[in-house]
């Protein structure tokens, strides 16, 4: 390796030097601070997406209604051009968000008008995998099991909460894993918004001066490596959560039978039998 490649950029050996420099780890612009911001944004967006997508997915899976509409909407949301949509929301929404105060180092003063559009963009991309996994998990449940639960006198809400939700949990967590990884990756694009933190700051800011040995190309590569490591660590953690919270029997069943959310494949539960 050399200190520069044929284009005059620092060589990859500079990335190792960058990681070995304590000044790049600590401080408000260090790797630790930006990783903490990235994790906080990920938790907030994924939790908000789950609060929206899981209840809607449970209702759609239980009733069998609206599956085609939601499937089409989910595919449409996946096709949203992230960067273009982010810039559009910054232009439209940011001037109308008057909040100028911050909250510590994670949300610096003046960043809220730009942080809100960035999180909205990522939220829209996080909802589809959770939503489709949730109603697909409910629809995969044997109709006889659902009818038996209703036959014992359970209401529709009780059937959803006590039967369908536990049985769909492996696919729901699978959707959460997929959404979380997508959020971690997409948050690097959110750093195009002014004052928004996260590991994407290394990548976006590094483009301004690629030849800089500290803030240029080495920082960009280091930021990309940090995003990949963070995604692997979070995915591994969610895998452990899946193994510890879901019955092994349910996990094995969901692994061998992964339904596609095709409308009309599951017989609907007679509404009169649920009361």
UniProtKB/TrEMBL annotation:
Membrane-spanning ranges: 39-60, 111-131, 179-203, 215-234
Source species, domain of life: Bacteria
Gene3D superfamilies in the record: MetI-like
ABC transmembrane type-1 domain boundaries: 39-238
Positions of region (Disordered): 251-275
Intracellular or extracellular location(s): Cell membrane; Membrane
Keywords from the named record: Membrane, Transmembrane, Transmembrane helix, Transport
InterPro entries attached to this UniProt entry: ABC_transp_perm/SBD (IPR051204), MetI-like (IPR000515), MetI-like_sf (IPR035906)
Topology in membrane: Multi-pass membrane protein
Main location per the UniProt record: membrane
One matching Pfam family: BPD_transp_1
Similarity comment: Belongs to the binding-protein-dependent transport system permease family.
Protein name: ABC transporter permease subunit
